[in-house]
Amino acid sequence: MKFLRLMVVLMVLVILGKLFYIQIIQHDEWVAKAAAQQTLQNVLKAKRGEIYMLDGETPVPVVMNATVYTVIVDPMLAEQGDLEEKLTPLIADTKVAEWSDVFKDTTRRYYIVAKNVRRGVAEKVAELDLTGVWLQANNQRVYPEGTLASTMLGFVNADGIGQYGVEGSLNKTLAGKDGLLKTVKDVNNVALSITNDYVNTPAEDGEDVVLTIDRNMQAQVEKILAAKSQEYGFANMSALVMNPQNGEIMAMANYPGYDPGDYGNVESAADYINHVVEDAYEPASMCKTFAFATGAEYGVMTPEKTFYNTGEITVDNWPIRNASQQSFLLGEQTMQTALSYSLNTGSTQVLKWLGGSEMEITAQGRQRLYDYYYNHFGLGRATGIELYESLGMLQQPDIVDGANSTYANMTFGQNMQTTMIQVAAAFASIINGGNYYTPTVVAGKLVDGKLVRDEKQEAVRRTVTEETSAMMRQMLIATRKSLKESGIDQAGYDTGGKTGTGQVIKDGAYSFDETEGNYIGFGGSAGQMPEYLIIVRIWESGKKADGAAHARPLFNEIKNYVQDYLHIKPVL
User: Fold this and answer.
1) 11, 49, 124, 470: which sits with the fewest CB atoms below 10 Å from its CB?
2) C-alpha distances in angstroms, 80 versus 31, 73, 95, 101, 111?
3) Nearest-angstrom CA–CA distance, 534 and 497
4) Quick one: which H or E segment has residue 111?
């Protein structure tokens, strides 16, 4: 009897010890396990906003959503063998995890095993009614226009994050904010939302963004680029069409593009670059427009003012030579002739005048040019457009070595780096009366199926006076008219522009075997303010593209289309 009583006491002590261990020592662990079996938790995915272009004033979708599903497993509740047998055959093509990894840690409550599962497969998974397995609906990006504006639109990666273009730069706006559902469930996995543990944070869907891009114009500009690439034999071309009166972008095209719906099918990540905004380069003689405008602002340059052109000068032991060495251009020449025939010696003369000298480049001249290039025209710094953009580079006016030759070269767009969007925004301010507008690709938002436009933006700053603007417009129009090409522009229209043929730096020095062709210009009814601005760029490694021979004809073809498409009427 004593022995039995002792055994009973020992058994009771063991039970009490075990209860103490479970209820006191392991209290938190068992509460967590109980809560895990009783709690239903699910992320409420936000719907990603769609992207629209304009057809007139009508928004048309160019980036849409399709519903796909993610298969999620709770390793604590699911049976590995059951899943391997029944689930694997259904999700084999979309499976992203190995079962051994899924069940390595059974305290983990959430493990994604398959992504981008189509609706039909998802329905079959649901019919299996497997314990610890559930489906989460997601949005997959669909690009119904294929490669249209791909370098501007960007894409969404496998993790649902926007990359490059609008998808990347406006990812936060488009993505929205995921919500959370957390509540106690019954044995049938039905949420008991009346409990105190109920948490329901609704998802905030992303906003639908409407771009300023005209879908028809974008498609036609890309078509022209593709045709000219084949005709000229140059691999790369870019073009931008802007409204110079408000900074709105009507078309932004790069050739070649890619399919954002199959974004992995590219040779390298370089194919994703939007060269209009992300690729800083030397814009060449298009910058003469800015140098001449600076001279006009300081009162040292007019179209009639003359200088003596020798065809070539030397600055800091650096030869500065005109591309055109025709005899009729030598001797006393006007600044209009210097712009029309793109004389580097002429733009360098403006720099000398800015410094108060006829013969020398001075610190004052360099400082004045830098101030207008950087602070007024915004060259070498971000424009503020709603896209990723490169800053470019301007040398400071007080650099130690070669300051004078560097700035002489900057008057015709070498020894500096800008982007096409920087040049376009600055050029627009020169021809529109002197107002600098932040370039924009966002028109507004789509709300209840209707376009709600953003507030009309005001000019950021004044770059030049109205008088300088009017003078530069006429100089650029005269430059265009000086071309010995019959019928290049129709009567009743004003068209002005400037070429640029830029040398490219290879192995630390300017190459004589590779150049880039550029042209920037504007147009509209005769005697009226410009209604469009176009800038184009042509290049390929190891080849010589020319501003006059290649870029200007490309501009002409886009210009003729834009002029007709916008229904611009001639004034005779």
Assistant:
1) 11
2) 25, 10, 15, 11, 13
3) 9
4) strand 111-117
* Neighbouring residues of 164: CB distance < 8 A, sequence distance ≥ 6: 151, 154, 155, 272, 273, 274, 388
Q: Compute the half-sphere exposure of residue 172: CA atoms within 13 Å on the CB side of its CA.
A: 3
Rounded alpha-carbon distances, angstroms, from residue 247 to 161, 166, 197, 241, 516: 28, 17, 52, 10, 25
Structure tokens at 293: 């405008």
Contact 76, 104 (CB under 8 A): no
**Residue 160: per-residue pLDDT:** 87
For the residues of 489-506, what is the DSSP string, one character each?
S-TTEEEEEEEEEEEEEE
234 by DSSP, 3-state: which?
coil
Residue 278 pLDDT: 97
Of 517, 477, 25, 441, residue with least CA distance to 235: 517
Side chain identity, residue 514:
E
Greater confidence (200 vs 271) lies with: 271
The helices-and-strands tally (H runs, E runs) of the chain is 19, 23
pLDDT digits (tens, 9 = 90+) for 474-496: 999 999 988 766 567 888 999 99
**Residues paired with residue 495 on neighbouring β-strands, in sequence order:** 523
SS3 category, 319: strand
| Least confident stretch, 78-87, 202-211, 266-275 | 78-87
pLDDT score, position 42: 64
Cα–Cα–Cα angle for 417, 394, 311, nearest 5°? 75
Say whether pLDDT at 39 is over 70. no
Question: Residue 488 and residue 495: Cα distance in Å, rounded?
Answer: 10
Position 33 scores a pLDDT of 66
What is the pLDDT averaged over residues 511-536? 95
pTM over 0.70: yes
DSSP state of 547: I
Q: Name residue 61's beta-bridge partners.
A: 52
Could you tell me which residues are beta bridge partners of residue 52? 61, 210
CB 568 within 8 A of CB 525: yes
How far apart CA 571 and CA 528 sit, in angstroms, is: 9
DSSP lists the bridge partners of residue 63 as 51
- How many Å apart are CA 306 and CA 300, to the nearest integer? 11
Tokens found for residue 281: 């380069």
* C-beta of residue 443 within 8 angstroms of C-beta of residue 453: yes
Average pLDDT of the chain, as a whole number: 91
Range 511-527 average pLDDT: 94
Q: What letter represents residue 362's amino acid? A: T
Distance of alpha carbon 515 from alpha carbon 510, whole angstroms: 9
What are 216-245's pLDDT values in tens digits? 999 999 999 999 999 999 999 999 999 999
Whether pLDDT at 190 is above 90:
no
Q: Which residue has the tokens 């992300």?
A: 278
